[in-house]
Amino acid sequence: MLEFKTRLIDCFKQDWSSALANHDFYYTFSLFKREVVCAQYLSLVRNIAVRRLFTRLRFGMSPLRGHYVEFRQDRMNMTDCPFCVNTRETEVHFLLACPEYRDLRDDFIPPKYTRQPSLFKLVMLMSSSSETLLRNLANFVYKALAKRGHVHG
Questions:
Q1: Phi/psi at 77 (nearest 5 deg)?
Q2: Segment 70-94 mean pLDDT
């Protein structure tokens, strides 16, 4: 019975990894979510609204334009940052580079991540095991999205 249970778990993990790897939509998420375990931030971020927005960003389902158009039929050219000309609004741009959020970024994200922003630094940030950093990152996402009018109530 133990061998059967182990085999089922192994098959599930392989299917999960394969599904992430084979779907472009989950590309960024798959870079920092390597294991099938409960993400640490889920127990650290107590505010439900903050946790919900941070979770949506991690899954690629946030109000970011690059995420939003994934769910629309008429994709047109709606992926640009609303504040930066000819700049695609990716997670890297939103979290680490967009000048519109510089003041919030200075309060919540250490400069080592924002100097020369890159996908590598985004993965390091999102994969962090630092409780303070994870809380700050979730709060940054919440406050930045509130600043652009995507937080209600």
A1: -115, 60
A2: 73
